[in-house]
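Hi R.,

As promised on Friday, here is the backbone we talked about, encoded as C-alpha cells. Could you run it through your design pipeline when you get a chance and send me back a sequence?
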C-alpha cells in the first residue's frame, strides 16, 4: 500500500559568515544516535551537502525573512521527527511479531498476527477514537475491565506501546504538515518581493550577490520541503485510514 520514505534535504555550503545555517543539526544527528541515516555530511565537489533529514536555511540579511525561513525549517524538522518516530514504532511492532518483511507501513498483518498469537487467552482488537487508535486487550472469559487480571505478556504490552506511539506520531505528522504548508505557501508567493528586500539590504554589490544566492538556495530547500512534507502527511494519513479500517471505523 504505502512505503517508508527515505529522504534527505540538500544545501550548498561554504565558509562565508552570511551562509551560516539558521538551524544546526541536533547533537544526536551529528554523533549517530538519532536516526536510521546517521552519517556525517558528505561533500560532493564542495557544493552539495546531504543533511540527515533535517532542513538547514541560510541567512539572507533581512531579519523578518530570516525568521520566516527559520520558522519554516523548524516546523519541517519537527514534522520530520514525528514522521521518523511513526516509522520507528511500526518497524518495532513488525520486529516484535515478525510481520511485514519489507518497507511497508501497513498494520493489518501485524494486528492479525497479534490476535492469532494471543487468541487462546485474550480478545485483541484495534480501537479507534477520533484520530487516535490503540490496541484493546481483554482476557478471554473476563466480565469486564474491573476484574482482577494478571499482567499482560511483555510482547503484548510492547505492541500496545508501539501502536500508541504510531497513532500519536501519525496524527502529529499530519498536524505539523498543515502548519508547514501555510508557511511554505507564503514563502513561495513572496519570492519576487523577498528578492527585492534582500537586494536592498545588502551594503555592497558583492554582499548582494552572496545574499541573493543564499535566498535562491533557501527557495530550493523550501520546494523540497514542500514535496517531502506532503509525502509525510500522505503516508501518515494512510496509516490512520488503515487503522480505521481495521477498527471498523470511519474518519
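Update: got your reply. Pasting your designed sequence below so it's all in one thread:
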Amino acid at each position: 500500500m504505502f512505503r517508508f520514505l527515505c529522504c534527505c534535504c540538500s544545501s550548498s555550503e561554504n565558509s562565508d559568515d552570511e551562509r551560516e545555517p539558521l538551524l544546526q543539526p541536533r547533537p544526536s544527528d551529528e554523533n549517530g544516535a538519532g536516526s536510521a541515516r546517521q552519517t556525517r555530511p558528505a561533500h560532493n565537489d564542495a557544493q552539495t551537502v546531504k543533511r540527515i533529514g533535517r532542513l538547514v536555511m541560510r541567512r539572507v540579511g533581512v531579519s523578518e525573512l530570516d525568521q520566516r525561513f527559520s520558522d519554516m525549517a523548524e516546523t519541517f524538522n519537527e514534522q520530520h521527527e514525528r514522521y521518523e518516530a511513526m516509522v520507528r514504532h511500526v518497524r518495532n511492532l513488525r520486529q516484535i511479531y515478525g510481520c511485514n518483511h519489507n518497507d511497508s507501513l501497513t498494520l493489518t498483518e501485524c494486528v492479525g498476527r497479534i490476535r492469532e498469537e494471543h487468541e487462546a487467552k485474550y480478545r485483541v482488537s484495534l480501537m479507534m477514537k477520533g484520530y487516535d487508535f490503540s490496541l484493546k486487550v481483554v482476557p478471554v472469559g473476563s466480565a469486564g475491565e474491573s476484574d482482577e487480571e494478571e499482567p499482560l505478556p511483555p510482547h503484548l504490552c510492547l505492541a500496545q506501546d508501539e501502536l500508541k506511539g504510531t497513532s500519536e506520531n501519525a496524527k502529529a505528522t499530519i498536524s505539523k504538515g498543515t502548519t508547514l504548508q501555510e508557511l511554505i505557501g507564503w514563502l513561495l508567493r513572496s519570492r519576487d518581493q523577498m528578492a527585492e528586500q534582500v537586494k536592498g539590504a545588502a551594503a555592497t554589490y558583492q554582499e548582494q550577490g552572496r545574499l541573493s544566492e543564499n535566498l535562491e538556495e533557501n527557495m530550493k530547500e523550501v520546494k523540497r520541503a514542500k514535496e517531502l512534507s506532503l509525502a509525510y502527511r500522505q503516508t501518515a494519513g494512510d496509516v490512520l485510514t488503515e487503522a480505521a479500517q481495521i477498527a471498523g471505523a470511519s474518519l
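One thing I noticed while checking it: The mean pLDDT is 82.

Thanks again,
M.
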